[in-house]
Amino acid sequence: MGPDDVLLIVMLTALTLYAILGGADFGAGIWEFTTAMQATDRERQHIYKAIGPVWEANHVWLIFVLVILMNGFPAAFAALSRALWLPLLLALCGILFRGSAYIFRSYGTGSGRERVFWESVFAIASTATPLFLGSAAGAVASGKLMIPTDTTSAVDFVVGWISALTVFTGFYSVALCAYLSAVFLLREARQIGDEPLTTLWRQRALSTGLWVGVLSFGGLVMVAIEAPALAQGFLNRGWPLVIASLLCGIGSLVEVWRLNCTRAAIAAGGAVTAVIWGWGISQYPAIIPPAITASSAKAPDNVLWMMLGVISLGAVFLLPALAYLLVLFKREQRLDA
Fold first, then answer.
1. Cα–Cα distance between 11 and 65 in angstroms, integer?
2. For residues 89 and 78, what is the distance between their CA atoms, to the nearest angstrom?
3. Percent of the chain having pLDDT more than 70?
4. From residue 125, how far is each of 33, 73, 99, 115, 133 by CA, in Å?
5. Which tens digit of pLDDT belongs to each residue from 87-106?
6. Lower CB count within 10 Å: N or C terminus of the chain?
7. Which helix (H) or strand (E) holds 80?
8. At CA 105, angle to CA 101 and CA 110, rounded to 5?
9. Which of 182, 192, 318 is CA-nearest to residue 255?
10. Which of 226, 271, 265, 221 is nearest to 247 (CA)?
11. Which of these, 119, 134, 127, lies nearest to 95 by C-alpha position?
12. Under the phi-then-psi rule, with left for phi > 0, alpha for psi from -120 to 50, and beta for the rest, what region is 288?
């Protein structure tokens, strides 16, 4: 195993953490969006209090993935920046507006109308961001991503990434974030002993989880139709992770039903992990199938080894700090409750 393979594992791990932790945070805003801003103040306070410690810290994982891709696999980074500039730009705008709306809504002293405005911005941006990030991932997974060149037409340069699979993966990402958020918020409500909120989020977790299960089976059919090379990869290498995702998803729903909330959250995270790693392993060694592989896009080995050394050193400080942040904040929440 070379340094490029190790970096791919690190990048996939960071992407998984962002999907689980950041996805749960995005899902909080998605619930405001899907309820047409009809959530009660009690529900909103529960949401904002739950995401308080990590609403911006989670983006470090996305930045981490981009830095590894840019420095470790510059050819792939350049190709993705050209081919997916529009959905990535829209996702970046969603992150920016979501963060701004969270601050103005939480700490602003304006009128009730202003507060509703920022809540709406937060909800829309929270929904749009995973929609476009998921669409970008689907464009890569399709194996049909068109890398723009100087001769590419203006229309293709803008919409060349759009396909049936990208639309599906965009909405699938939104549903997955909503389910993660419902399970995590159920756990928060259970920990503070709030029975009405526990009942509410249990119902939402169960209903959303069933829909995600249906979409997951539909996704396998969509991949078989739209991305036959990736489907073959699932059959050859990724099938154990498909089974793991199925078992974790069912297990999560069972634990939600039984109100074993910590186990439900772990199982839901396991399902997301299996989906992402199943995609990565099935697509390997391609980064942007079919042509751009890890070996063809990587930087010189001395650069890759240096990156791995810096990452290892940084992890010594970053991981304990993030863990302490979560433990400290959640302990304060339980004391306040």
1. 5
2. 15
3. 87
4. 9, 30, 9, 15, 12
5. 999 999 999 998 888 888 77
6. N
7. helix 74-83
8. 120
9. 182
10. 271
11. 127
12. beta
- With both helix axes pointing from N to C terminus, report the angle between 85-107 and 41-51 in degrees, rounded to the nearest 10: 110
Please spell the DSSP secondary structure of 35-54, one letter per residue.
Answer: TTT---HHHHHHHHHHHTTT
Three-state secondary structure of 164-222: HHHHHHHHHHHHHHHHHHHHHHHHHHHHCCCHHHHHHHHHHHHHHHHHHHHHHHHHHHH
Q: What is the pLDDT of residue 335?
A: 45
Question: Is omega for the bond preceding 285 within 30 degrees of 0, making it cis?
Answer: yes
Count of H-run helices and E-run strands, the chain: 15, 2
With beta carbons less than 8 A apart as the criterion, state whether 276 and 217 touch.
Answer: no
Contact 65, 133 (CB under 8 A): no
Query: What pLDDT, on a 0 to 100 scale, did the predictor assign at position 9?
Result: 94
C-alpha distances out from residue 132 to 60, 167, 174, 240, 327, Å: 18, 9, 9, 28, 31
pLDDT (average), residues 111-137: 88
Residue 277 CB partners (closer than 8 Å, separation 6+): 12, 16, 241
What are the phi and psi torsion angles at 293 (to 5°)?
Answer: -105, 170
What does the pLDDT average to over 130-144? 93
**Residue 95 backbone zone (phi > 0: left; psi -120 to 50: alpha; other: beta):** alpha
- Structure tokens that stand for 60 in this block: 């470090």
Which has more confidence, 21 or 276?
276
- pLDDT tens readout for residues 191-219: 888 888 899 999 999 999 999 999 999 99
What's the mean per-residue pLDDT of the chain?
86
Q: How confident is the model at residue 233 (pLDDT cuts 50, 70, 90)?
A: very high
CA 161 to chain CA mean position, Å: 19
